[in-house]
């Protein structure tokens, strides 16, 4: 990096500010997901479908959302031998989703980039899960003292070098990741908690405004919206907070 390069860069902001909020449909059935999307109405433009819904009819529902003009993030966190990842991504790329996650292992990222060739699908590499902190890494066999931030740094550098489209990290690491990946790659941060909401199993968290200020392009929020008494109001409040924090 040239010394003249500013440390804080942001990639091109989403044209519609609502697209910066990705709402996680962590729900057990398509019926419940459809009801949530209906309640959220035009406050939600971008939805994430993860394990729970994907394995309960979520792929068909993804097609339905895309046909209605919503954007879809398929959060499948793929990780397997290279050939399986490449062919899997090739199949998924036909669905018309905007984002797909893979774990940020070099073989996996390389295969995913090959598999999406020729499609508009963007691959996001999940660096270190937001529910992990140092002890969880040690429990998983990483060297004692390895911090989440150290591992995020290494994986963000590898993702950049392999041509990955975007990085998933916790919001406290967004600024450091932006310095690594520059403005051409997206930064997507889950583990977002509006002031006063429950952290649950998330460990590396920030508020929507702080995540945006540190350089996140998109925030992923599930429980604070879908479990709210008024999911539409909860989504609107986060979009307002994003808007207020956007320079
Ligand atoms: O890839 C993700 O989206 C993801 C990565 C990560 O490190 N942490 C994380 O929480 N997520 C997902 O983001 C969502 C966060 O949900 P809430 O904690 O309910 O807002 C869940 O659907 C997670 O699967």
From TrEMBL:
GO terms for molecular function: orotidine-5'-phosphate decarboxylase activity. It catalyses: orotidine 5'-phosphate + H(+) = UMP + CO2. Its EC number is 4.1.1.23. The active site is at residues 75, 77, 80. Pathway: Pyrimidine metabolism; UMP biosynthesis via de novo pathway; UMP from orotate: step 2/2. CDD domains: OMP_decarboxylase_like (cd04725). SMART domains: OMPdecase. Keywords: Decarboxylase, Lyase, Pyrimidine biosynthesis. This is Orotidine 5'-phosphate decarboxylase.
